[in-house]
Each structure stands twice: as C-alpha cells, then as structure tokens.
Design brief:
- By secondary structure, the chain is mostly helical.
- The protein has helices at 3-29, 36-58, 62-86, 88-93, 114-139, and strands at 108-109, 112-113.
- α1 runs antiparallel to α2 (36-58), α1 (3-29) runs antiparallel to α5 (114-139) and α3 (62-86) runs antiparallel to α5 (114-139).
C-alpha cells in the first residue's frame, strides 16, 4: 500500500476509534445519556472502525465503498444535531420525543459540544477517504 494512502487510512481509523471510545466514555463513565440523534451518530461511526480496520489489516478495498454511506450519513446527522443545539427555532420544528432532548447541551468544552466533535470526526474521516481514493487512483 502506498505510504500516503496507508497514512490516510490509519488516520481515518484512529479518528473513528477515538470517536467510538469517546462516546462510550461519555455514556458509560461520565453517565451522560445519549439522545436519539447521538444514537444514530454512533450507529454510523462504530462500523467505520471495523471497515477501516479491514482496509489496514488485509487491504480489503471493498470496505471503502461501504464506508462512504456511513461517513456521509453520520456527518449529515451530526450537522443536523449541531444545528438543533445552536438554534432553538430548529429544535422546536422537530423535537426529540423519546429519551433525552437532542437540543440540550449536556457537555461542552468552550464551543465544542459532543455533536460538534462528532461532526468534526466524520468530516475528518471523509477528508482522509478522499485523500485515499485520489492517491489510489494515481498509483493504480
């Protein structure tokens, strides 16, 4: 595997793994209950750890085409979640009906909330996958 491609895939995998472990830390150790949109973001992020790991482990490039829908879908959900948290008007349009409210900010570090961190992770993974695909086409 080309070095640039390998580094991009490893960075994407490390980001997905960090996001997965971070979400588990917030829910299992900090005791924060995930809202509905948080669950959807987890559903999109967790499989990426295994898909990207398959690319690193045995260069199974078929996993790349399956990773894209999870990345894009997760990024869209995270973007919607961020918009709901920062705009009370949007939160009123589609309120969370079950469990914890998606509009409530339960944790933040300055401007960074959990959904914003999720969005950043998805966008970074997408950027790494773009680098991976462009460089693969260049050398294959």
């Amino acid at each position: 595997m080309e070095t640039r491609v390998r580094i991009a895939v490893i960075l994407a995998w490390m980001t997905a793994l960090s996001a997965m472990l971070g979400s588990l830390y917030f829910s299992e150790i900090q005791g924060l209950q995930p809202c509905l949109l948080c669950w959807y973001q987890r559903i999109a992020m967790y499989p990426l750890v295994f898909m990207l790991g398959m690319i690193i482990w045995d260069e199974n490039w078929n996993a790349l085409k399956y990773a894209w829908p999870f990345c894009v879908g997760g990024a869209l959900i995270a973007a919607w979640h961020v918009a709901i948290q920062y705009s009370p008007t949007l939160a009123a349009v589609i309120p969370c009906e079950k469990g914890y409210s998606c509009a409530v900010i339960t944790w933040s570090l300055g401007p960074f909330t959990i959904p914003l961190l999720s969005l950043i992770a998805f966008v970074f993974v997408i950027a790494c996958l773009i680098v991976t695909q462009r460089n693969r086409k260049e050398y294959h």
